[in-house]
């Protein structure tokens, strides 16, 4: 059980008022999380005491900066059940996922030009190969694979979604002998549904396919052990898990990162450069060209320390209660449909919904007038919205600091939405 009042005291922004003095109710954690003081202070401390370029200077401050940078890598890797040299820093999960996709593209192009390095052949794609995604994907884990298929001649296929907003197990048979890559979300940012990773990975491994996991929502809300899950690659963003913006991470099995061609090239990722050719450093440095996000890494370190202190098991249990309270409360509001499972089983507190006859932006505006912050739009996931029969939705998403009282305030606000627009329709 978590001490919610103690936790809330750590988040400065939660004390503010909005819209003519209303206390902020922040239910947009699925988009970005608020930051505890510990994270804010860690980033500030770096700039005030340890600011220097990493892996470059021989002076004391540079050494301290490098130590902080790599200590953060170790801490974040341990948090998700990985080794430190299996974690590549990226500016966000989108960049991490693109890094993998472009690694496959570069391996394919290198093979066609006869310049492959050792181990690259396993990533080469040919016409007739298949890349499998799901209809639940955020655009960040869909568009890169569409582009990769178009540029290599591979075929894009997908697993569909049930009316409940979960992956359709009847479509799992799309994973077959031609499947080379299977990219899928751990938890949907629209329906909140948690993917049966074990079954998906088992089928992918039987087909000899690489697995790429979008762990943006899960790493922030559930205990995650990437080694135990058995995926080949996984990406997640710091800003969704209490860390600063501008930093994310890509996990890759060590032997795969050692063979995957780099995406970005330049300084800091090279061993030997001549005017004719360049050799690259081993991972993770081979994927970290240029000046890195060192202060943000220090903040990320503080964020995973904070989540570890709270305890991810306790956090997940707290959030499951909030999920059920959200779903039960919404069910009592006439004319509101939840997009996703109707109970908290294998589901996150990411609850997208439509209000009959009311545009999501209008829903968001009425809630905002009451001080309640939710997300509106298609949440960078147009296909699943289309599958569920809507163009957009409003979405409430809870975090480690969310209280039952805030959920109740949201439900009251949702009743107000229905009342306001119902009254308007009556006057017309």
From TrEMBL:
It is an enzyme of class 2 (transferase). It catalyses: (sulfur carrier)-H + L-cysteine = (sulfur carrier)-SH + L-alanine. Keywords: Pyridoxal phosphate, Transferase. InterPro entries: Aminotrans_V_dom (IPR000192), Aminotrans_V_PyrdxlP_BS (IPR020578), Cys_dSase_SufS (IPR010970), PyrdxlP-dep_Trfase (IPR015424), PyrdxlP-dep_Trfase_major (IPR015421), PyrdxlP-dep_Trfase_small (IPR015422). GO terms for molecular function: cysteine desulfurase activity; pyridoxal phosphate binding. Its cofactor is pyridoxal 5'-phosphate. The keyword GTP-binding does not apply. Residues 25-410 form the Aminotransferase class V domain. SUPFAM superfamilies: PLP-dependent transferases. GO terms for biological process: cysteine metabolic process. It comes from the Bacteria. Its EC number is 2.8.1.7. Pfam families: Aminotran_5. Belongs to the class-V pyridoxal-phosphate-dependent aminotransferase family. Csd subfamily. Catalyzes the removal of elemental sulfur and selenium atoms from L-cysteine, L-cystine, L-selenocysteine, and L-selenocystine to produce L-alanine. This is Cysteine desulfurase. It comes from Nesterenkonia cremea.
């Amino acid at each position: 059980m978590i001490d919610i009042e103690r936790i809330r005291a750590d988040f400065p922004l939660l004390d503010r008022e909005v819209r003519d003095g209303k206390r902020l109710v922040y239910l947009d954690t699925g988009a970005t999380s608020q930051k505890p003081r510990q994270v804010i202070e860690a980033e500030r401390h770096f700039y005030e005491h340890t600011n220097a370029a990493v892996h470059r200077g021989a002076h004391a401050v540079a050494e301290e900066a490098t130590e902080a940078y790599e200590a953060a890598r170790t801490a974040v890797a341990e948090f998700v059940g990985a080794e430190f040299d299996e974690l590549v820093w990226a500016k966000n999960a989108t960049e991490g996922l693109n890094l993998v996709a472009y690694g496959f593209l570069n391996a394919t192009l290198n093979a066609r030009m006869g310049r492959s390095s050792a181990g690259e052949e396993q990533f080469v794609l040919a016409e007739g190969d298949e890349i499998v995604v799901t209809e639940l994907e955020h655009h960040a884990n869909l568009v890169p694979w569409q582009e990769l298929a178009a540029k290599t001649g591979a075929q894009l296929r997908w697993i569909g979604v049930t009316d409940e907003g979960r992956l359709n197990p009847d479509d799992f048979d799309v994973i077959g002998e031609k499947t080379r890559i299977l990219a899928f979300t751990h938890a949907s940012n629209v329906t909140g549904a948690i993917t049966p990773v074990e079954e998906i990975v088992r089928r992918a491994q039987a087909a000899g396919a690489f697995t790429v996991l979008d762990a943006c929502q899960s790493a922030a809300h559930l205990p995650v052990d990437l080694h135990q899950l058995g995926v080949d690659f996984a990406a997640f963003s710091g800003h969704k898990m209490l860390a600063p913006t501008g930093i994310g991470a890509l996990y890759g099995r060590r032997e795969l990162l050692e063979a995957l061609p780099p995406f970005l090239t330049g300084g800091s990722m090279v061993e030997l450069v001549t005017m004719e050719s360049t050799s690259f450093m081993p991972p993770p440095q081979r994927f970290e060209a240029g000046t890195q996000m060192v202060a943000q890494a220090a903040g990320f370190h503080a964020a995973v320390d904070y989540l570890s202190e709270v305890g991810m098991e306790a956090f997940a249990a707290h959030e499951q209660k909030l999920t059920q309270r959200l779903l039960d409360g919404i069910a009592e509001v006439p004319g509101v449909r939840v997009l996703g499972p109707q109970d908290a089983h294998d589901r996150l507190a990411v609850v997208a919904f439509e209000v009959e006859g009311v545009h999501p932006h209008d829903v968001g505006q009425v809630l905002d007038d009451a001080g309640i912050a939710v997300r509106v739009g298609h949440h960078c996931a147009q296909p699943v919205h289309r599958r569920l029969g809507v163009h957009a939705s409003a979405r409430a998403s809870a975090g480690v600091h969310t209280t039952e009282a805030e959920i109740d305030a949201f439900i009251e606000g949702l009743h107000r939405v229905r009342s306001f627009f119902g009254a308007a329709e009556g006057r017309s």
